[in-house]
Amino acid sequence: MAKTIKKEDINEKAIIASFLQDVPLDHESLMSENNEISGKPPAPKTETSKDETRRRRGKEQDYETLFVKESSITARTGKMVYIRRDFHDTIQTICRVIGSNKVSLSGYIDNILVHHFETYGGEITRLYEEKHKGINITKISE
């Protein structure tokens, strides 16, 4: 069955902005406009932790150098994943405008994940080992 969409829920500005090639899509302003139209309060901004700030400062590099670059992966060799439509639109705009259409969506996402795992790999491993104790089956002799 098809999903029914209310006319009030359609954001015309976001649709028009998605078709404009040279104008970057400002995700924050579109979200605040959506919230004003729908009457929802904007989501509260979260404070960054000291650890996160330290990580950013320690490995501070140019955003384009880190993320908006060619990746060794091609979309055909990877796996398909689903992401939010607004994230897809934002990433597509970043690749089109900042990356001058030279970076694919899958390449951009791959670069972000490489950085994420390099930054948080130790913590991820620690949490995994802490929560994955395994099972120890002992053989009872008769």
Model description:
By secondary structure, this protein is mostly helical. 51% of the residues lie in helices and 0% in strands. The protein contains six helices and no strands. Residues 21-25 have low confidence and may be disordered.
Question: Which key phrases capture this entry?
Answer:
single chain; 142 residues; mainly alpha
What would a concise description of this structure say?
This protein is 51% helix and 0% strand. The chain contains six helices and no strands.
Total helical segments: 6
Q: Helix share of residues?
A: 40-55%
Shape: extended
Judged by helices, strands and strand pairing, the structural class is mainly alpha
How many beta-strand runs? 0
User: Which segments are poorly predicted (pLDDT under 50) over 5 or more consecutive residues?
Assistant: 21-25
Average pLDDT metric: 74
Helix/strand order, N-terminal first: HHHHHH
End-to-end distance: 61 Å
For the report, how would you describe the main beta sheet? none
Task: Tell me the strand percentage band.
Answer: under 5%
How much is the radius of gyration in Å? 21 Å
